[in-house]
Design a protein that fits this description.
alpha/beta, about 350 residues, six-stranded parallel sheet
């Protein structure tokens, strides 16, 4: 496998997860940054290092898959080049800036008979896996409202392309964290019929959205209220899900990102969280406990994504996240941007 990009996505998520997956081997890392080149060599002594993606495409016959973990604006051109070179591709989210571009990539992959998968790792978050099981088991009854928050307290902008006001960079929280919360909502409750959004630039010096709310009405009637923010001085619950039989409330983020950033690698006890962080299921009005009973959180499982990629390549298994699924999420993000700009709900 070749990995393009060795910043946060490449070094913290993709490289360690590839290395931990049976059947996959990290062959080459592409980065032009000398410090990141040395970092890659130190962390993976047998890896080759290339300065530009063309060095990978020139060796397409030696590789089985390209992973694109470079800045958002490069995703479409690099994925296109990889597919035209005959290489299956994994692209970090968002796969593209528009749903139309994502569908064009999907069509190219289908035409070439190649895998094109999108890294939506938060489908394997511990709380998402737990919620999906609760819904499947009928514990909540008919879900009426899904509240999902991905909030942070970062009162000072950090800069970089993710916070650039240049539309070509595809930055801002709507496309960064919004890609996760929208994908999760669609995976749980199906397509959206309408979208309403409010999007603000709150922090002094910020150039792009840092506090955004998205309301979806799904085709099946479920309403999703999704919050992404860098300006939340008090964090709300990660999930609050209300159904006809019971509700589920869960605080705190899945521990896998923090573990990877801290240098831990998948192994025994991976993705587990302490009982003190479990959510609660049931009903009640207690302001202290929230009512209901503690619900054991299933282990988070980011390694499952690349295990599925390996199975798709080696055994013809299903694509864990298709480009068309990503296109559906991008359609929602585009509608949210229009809604926030014009102050209207957008029908899909």
């Amino acid at each position: 496998m070749g990995l393009v990009g060795y910043g946060l996505a490449g070094s913290v998520f993709h490289a360690p997860l590839i290395a931990a997956t049976e059947g996959l081997a990290l062959d080459t890392v592409v980065t032009s940054n000398p410090e990141r080149q040395e970092q890659a060599r130190a962390e993976f002594p047998d890896v080759r290092v290339a300065a530009v993606p063309d060095e990978l495409f020139d060796r397409a016959g030696d590789l089985d898959l390209i992973v694109i973990a470079s800045p958002n604006k490069t995703h479409v051109p690099l994925a296109t080049a990889a597919l035209k070179a005959g290489l299956p591709v994994v692209v970090d989210k968002p796969v593209a800036g528009t749903a139309a571009e994502a569908r064009e990539l999907a069509a190219l992959a289908e035409e070439r008979g190649l895998l094109l998968s999108v890294f939506q790792n938060r489908r394997w978050d511990n709380d998402f896996l737990t919620l999906r099981k609760l819904i499947a088991d009928g514990e909540l009854g008919d879900v009426w409202r899904f509240e999902s928050r991905f909030e942070r307290w970062r009162p000072q902008p950090k800069g970089g392309w993710r916070e650039s006001g240049d539309p070509a960079e595809i930055g801002g929280l709507l496309y960064d964290l919004g890609s996760h919360v929208v994908d999760q909502a669609l995976a749980l409750f199906g397509p959206a019929a309408s979208v309403y959004a409010e999007s603000d630039i709150r922090r002094p010096g910020a150039e792009t959205d840092d506090d955004t709310f998205i309301a979806l009405t799904h085709a099946n009637g479920v309403r999703s209220h999704l919050y992404v923010s860098a300006t939340a001085a008090q964090l709300g619950p990660r999930f609050r899900v209300l159904g006809s039989k019971a509700g589920y409330v869960k605080y705190g983020l899945d521990p896998q990102e923090a573990a990877l950033k801290g240098g831990r690698r998948p192994g025994p006890d991976w993705g587990l969280e302490p009982e003190s962080l479990w959510g609660r299921v049931g009903s009640g009005e207690s302001p202290l406990t929230g009512g209901g009973r503690p619900e054991p959180t299933l282990p988070g499982d980011y390694p499952a994504y690349y295990a599925a990629v390996a199975k798709a390549l080696l055994d013809g298994g299903p694509n864990p996240v298709t480009a068309l699924e990503a296109a559906a999420a991008l359609e929602v993000l585009e509608a949210a941007r229009r809604s926030a700009r014009d102050g209207v709900a957008v029908t899909l």
